[in-house]
Specification:
- Keywords: Kinase, Transferase.
- This is Putative kinase.
- One of its GO terms (molecular function) is kinase activity.
- It comes from Saccharothrix tamanrassetensis.
- The structure is a single chain.
- By secondary structure, the protein is mostly helical.
- It has one domain.
- Helix content is 45%, strand content 8%.
- The chain contains 4 helices and 2 strands.
- It has a two-stranded parallel ribbon.
- The longest helix is centred in the first third of the chain and has 13 residues.
- The protein is globular and about 40 Å long.
Amino acid sequence: MIVDATGHRRETRSRLRLRAESLGGEFVGVECVCSDERAQRGRVEGRVRGIPGWHPTVSWEHVLRMKGLWESWDEPHLVVDSAVDPPDVVLSKVSAYL
């Protein structure tokens, strides 16, 4: 099972871990960041999700609000930075971590 979510709260990550373990799996945390705020904003504002019934994207203000709610990880996990590495390198890092 792969969950693509903000996971901004420790409690949420803990529930995901318990769910994975209850299904006989293992929780592997991957934190995806973009250290270049200008690049991140451009990606957010230029994105079109293509999901019927959903907004094309979230606002930059929403992204900033969520950043303000972020609770740091208190357990081992992988951090990948899309401002540093292209998608194929990020995928290789995640695959190696798994």
